[in-house]
Amino acid sequence: MARRLLWASLGLAPITMIVYFVGQADDFTLFVMAAASLVPLAWLIGEATEHAAHHTGPGIGGLLNATFGNAPELIISLFAINKGLFEVVRGSLTGSVVGNLLLVLGFSLLFGPAKPIDRRSAMTSLGLVAAAVLLFLVVAIPGWSGDTTRHSLQVLSIPVSIVLLLIYVVVQRVQLKRFRALHAAATEGGGWSLRRSLLVLGVTTAATAVVAEILVHSIEAFAEKAHLSDFFVAAVIVAIVGNAAEHGGAVVVAKRGRVKLATEIALSSGAQVAVFLIPAVMILSWAINPIALAFRQVEIAAMAGSAILAAVLLAHGKASSWRGAVLVAAYVVVAAVFYKAGGR
Q1: CB-facing half-sphere around the CA of 138: CA atoms within 13 A
Q2: For residue range 194-247, what is the model confidence (pLDDT) as tens digits?
Q3: In the chain, what are the domain boundaries?
Q4: Contact 68, 245 (CB under 8 A)
Q5: The model's pTM
Q6: CATH node for 2-184+193-341
């Protein structure tokens, strides 16, 4: 029954697009419709990712989900940059990192079985997040005073972004070689073909990106009517919606007993946002409206704290419900801090 409802609710996405382009709803309604539309899309991405992982192994399966799942976040960021919503951009990216490390990973452990995870891969992903946070400080610290849109901060963000992208490329090459070696003779049959899985992932992600653009269009009106700051809406609500693919995919595979894949989805996505998506957004912004990596103190603290907590809980390479509960509880605390922090 649940699967039938999810298949049926896939129609929400085209309905939302039609309503948006026809102009028959206010922005508050559009925001809610777009958020609801992403739920079945996230589920379908999770389904396709799990079928693809039967052919690739959990490591590359998690990387596939992170890659496809982060596409909407890139679209959200670029449209927000075009509108000059810099705090929304930085908030949504910060919230994405924190959401993956605490909320997505937490729910994966909470609903999944108590099984061993790939400790080496987990520590690598968390190490990437830690390295990214340290490099963010190069721009963030001078940005804590004065105008965060000043040219000097924008220029300083370029070398930081380039270093992060180089780190990402090097680490991913090493990781992919390791995953291929581990799973060269361990692919599984059954389910969808790899070609069909990738096709569904591509089409679903494209639809998700269009719906994500509708969110950007309506975010300010939603925040005003809901009496919330743009930063909180971006760091919590938009980040959760933008990460819907990872949320849905991780929980689906975790409930089916594949906790190793679920943790790969959450951690790979968090690391990819930190060392690839954030610097990529910064560099691409120069073609639209340059943005600096001037994260606030609360954002730096949230990302660093999330990486440290996840590393401590996963240090022994084991998954358990209580670890998941701790991570989810920590996310609630961070969300409350974001609410209290408000705008800059």
Answers
A1: 16
A2: 888 888 888 888 888 888 888 888 888 899 899 999 899 999 988 887 776 667
A3: 2-184+193-341
A4: yes
A5: 0.84
A6: 1.20.1420.30
